[in-house]
Amino acid sequence: MLTQEDIDKLRNKEIKPQNLFVGKKSMPSETGETLDVVSPIDGNVFTTIANANENDVNNAVSIARKSFDSGSWSNASPQERKKTLYNFADLIEKHALELAVLGVRDNGTEINLALVAEPLSAAACVRYYAETIDKSYGEIAPTSKNILGLIHREPIGVVGAIIPWNFPLMIGSWKFAPALATGNSIIIKAAENASLTLLKLAELALEAGIPEGVFNVITGEGEITGKALAMHMDVDVIAFTGSGEVGRKILEYASLSNLKRVYLELGGKSPNIVFADTPNIDAAVTQSLGGIFRNSGQVCVAGSRLIIEESIADEFTEKLINQSKDLVVGDPLNLNSNFGAVSSNEQLMKNLKYVNSAIDDGAKLRIGGKQINKNTGGFYMEPTIFSDVDNQMTIAKEEVFGPVLSVIKCKNEEDAVQIANDTNYGLAAAVWTSDLSKAHRMIKSIRAGVVHVNCYGGADITVPLGGVKQSGNGHDRSLHALEKYTDLKSAWISL
Ligand code: NAI
Ligand code: MG
Fold first, then answer.
1. Closest-lying ligand 1 atom to the alpha carbon of residue 229
2. Does pTM surpass 0.85?
3. Which CATH class is domain 271-460?
4. What is the model's pLDDT at position 25?
5. Cα(246) to centroid(ligand 1), Å
6. What is the pLDDT of residues 148-203, one digit of tens each?
7. From 110, 300, 309, 399, the catalytic residue
8. CA–CA separation, 295 and 334 (whole Å)
9. Rounded to an integer, what distance in angstroms lies between the CA atom of residue 484 and that of residue 159?
10. Which CATH superfamily is domain 4-266+472-492 in?
11. Regarding beta strands 404-410 and 384-387, do their DSSP bridges make them parallel or antiparallel, or are they unpaired?
12. pLDDT above 90: residue 326
């Protein structure tokens, strides 16, 4: 059981300045340059990370390539790789609370969520892919009798993963676990404001027996470190989660360099559609709030557009507002806080700008909208609800990535579909209805990677997650993710 006392023992632990983790050890950047790590809890700098330049990235890629070519991991027996990944998962679990608290100090996610969503889900993810290693078979093609066509699956080589700050371990593991399971070497570029837990994971990977050079973590500025990785001629894949703006750049870097494969997960503006025949209004209210406010709205699948059938719109909105009043936003390491801090001052300012734009556009601010707990020095924002939002307003079009809900009315099913799909994004959606046929029609009509029915959120590693339209391409999670980190090789044998 998670206790406040256990959390408090870790909350002020001294964190030494952090190096890059490349090969078998941590090393400073070539220039010795560092970036401050600011805690969103109180705005204080509590350690530094290395700011890697292009030479540091080159070094990391060369070490990863050497490890891949050596076969220490890429040719290790399936049983060996599986055993090692199990060890890794066990170690992540053993250090779960330490990792969770460290991560919260770095990015401000409420600890209850962070513990489950970060180290524990990463451990489960590593185990899931470890289990696939000795259960994946090649294929024999249905060729004519005098020919044997064999289809092998091979690791691609050196995988670059560029990770955001909202859930570094969870999103990181969705990329590194299938990449490792299939025998690749990996370089993780952690986000500027959430590098610490991934660096710790690199130590644990080595301790678990993953050979040196196979699991590397580098840190630094996106425009320098991230760009150098995505531009590198000897990186075979970039798996990216983050903003659409950077996603576009990564496609460009790939085309300007070696045509590496690029997988993008770019967030969304997900519609959460509540029909008048929702089976349970209160459950819909509670989950709709969780669906937008958890992790202060910094969730790629956040249900940021609540599309509500006219006949229950006023009643539903009142209930949303009333429940929001009880939500406690505060110290993310305090178990009594429902929601924690916004990950950076920059993100908080961005959120507040969107609030102003919504007001200017004529949306009605019903609750929240302001920065709070300023005396802590940290970055906190009230859960914020706008009603009377038109789907053409900026607040309904752009991903805020903050605790801001837009309530949009719809007339009927057809209207709901039209509004839901009138967006550049297509990551997640939800539909609340008692009508089974309507639910299935909606699943078919909504252009999104996942459609929840009578719930918001709650998926697991067995189910793929990926977007359509400008939410990206490729799927994390499930057996399908293995395809992203393997190449097919055909053998054509004359008999
Ligand atoms: P970002 O897209 O700039 O950062 C994500 C990662 O990309 C970080 O590791 C960063 O260092 C790296 N990066 C940045 N510029 C790069 C470049 N030129 N080349 C290679 N790598 C680069 O996201 P940011 O600035 O932290 O947040 C801005 C917005 O992006 C958020 O407000 C939100 O709307 C969206 N976002 C969406 C996420 C999701 O889960 N889909 C996660 C994080 C942000
Ligand atoms: Mg950015």
1. 20
2. yes
3. alpha beta
4. 84
5. 6
6. 999 999 999 999 999 999 999 999 999 999 999 999 999 999 999 999 999 999 99
7. 300
8. 14
9. 10
10. Aldehyde Dehydrogenase; Chain A, domain 1 (3.40.605.10)
11. parallel
12. yes
> Any idea which residue has 């837009």 for tokens?
406
- Nearest alpha carbon, ligand 1 atom 43: 242
Which positions ≥6 away from 34 have C-beta within 8 Å? 17, 48, 49, 50, 51
CA distance 408 to 138: 49
Residue of minimum CA distance from atom 8 in ligand 1 = 191
Quote the tokens at residue 355: 């609030």
In the chain, the amino acid numbered 404 is V
Q: Which of 265, 309, 382, 399 is catalytic?
A: 265
Q: Supply 435's token pair.
A: 């009508």
Query: Catalytic annotation on 98?
Result: no
Q: What are phi and psi of 457, to 5 degrees?
A: 80, -170
Domain boundaries, the chain: 4-266+472-492, 271-460
| Active site annotation includes 265 | yes
| Closest ligand relative to 470 C-alpha | 1
